[in-house]
């Protein structure tokens, strides 16, 4: 996995965890609502897996936000992380 891909996966996971906790869901609850295993939610949050587009939309629906909002959060967090690394 390339460095950028790994960074994006980690950022996505952090964003997902933050959004999930903001709505007060456990990994198990979110997984159940999306018909996904809790361990898959854990893998997503740790940046070890990435969702399909279908899964992204299911997550967004259960988090009560548009899928585009998740992408926006990921993009902003990634840009901030990249900016922090520049000398």
TrEMBL record:
Name recorded for this polypeptide: HTH cro/C1-type domain-containing protein
InterPro entries according to UniProt: Cro/C1-type_HTH, Lambda_DNA-bd_dom_sf, TransReg_Diox_bact_type
Domain of life: Bacteria
One annotated GO molecular function: DNA binding
Keywords: DNA-binding
Record-annotated membrane-spanning stretches: none
Cross-referenced PROSITE patterns: HTH_CROC1
Segments forming domain HTH cro/C1-type: 16-70
Gene3D superfamilies, alphabetized: lambda repressor-like DNA-binding domains
Organism: Methylomonas koyamae
Keyword DNA-binding assigned: yes
GO cellular component terms, semicolon-separated: cytosol
One Pfam family in the UniProt entry: HTH_3
Signal peptide as annotated in the record: none
